[in-house]
Amino acid sequence: MMLRMQEDKRVHRIKSDYGSSDYYRHYTRETKSKVSRTVFSSILREFNSHVRDRISTKGAEYIMPRRVGKIELRKMQTEVKIDDDGNILNTLPVNWRETRKLWSENEKAREKKTKIRLKIIKAFCHSAPKNSFDSAIKRIGNV
Questions:
Q1: Nearest to residue 120, comparing CAs of 88, 73, 80?
Q2: Would you place residue 129 in the very low, low, confident or very high pLDDT band (cuts 50, 70, 90)?
């Protein structure tokens, strides 16, 4: 019995209901002090890059307002070990594309649920210049 796997052709994108123009429109309706659209966009861009850099480089979590949720990155130690009984403990991530390919070609591997693991992955981070968020706050005061 051969298991047929179909390739998923759907587009997995979440469409946002709101964008920066909607945020600016809401801001102009709700506040008395007005800033231009370009200043608002620059503040929004700097704030988002500050949050992104804090999450990616410092490991901070960002708690979104109004109990929407939080964004955080968790580091997971990935390595191959041998325990006291001689069993191999592999915590590297699974390469699902290659695993499905193996399962479609080899029935025994599919029955045993043999998984192909990724090799060690190197991650690179981009760090923002210091006090970039503070400069945006100072600009708000000067408007």
A1: 80
A2: very low
Buried b (16+ CB within 10 A) or exposed e, 97-135: eebeeebeeeeeebeeeebbeeeeeeeeeeeeeeeebee
Return the sign of the alpha-carbon dihedral for residues 54, 37, 138, 29.
negative
Band (102; pLDDT cuts 50, 70, 90): very high
Closest CA to 50 of 138, 135, 124: 135
Residues 64 and 51 sit within 8 Å (Cβ to Cβ): no
pTM of the shown model: 0.45
| CA atoms of 40 and 115, how far apart (whole Å) | 49
**Residue 5 binned pLDDT confidence (cut-offs 50, 70, 90):** low
Length of the chain in residues, anyone?
Answer: 143
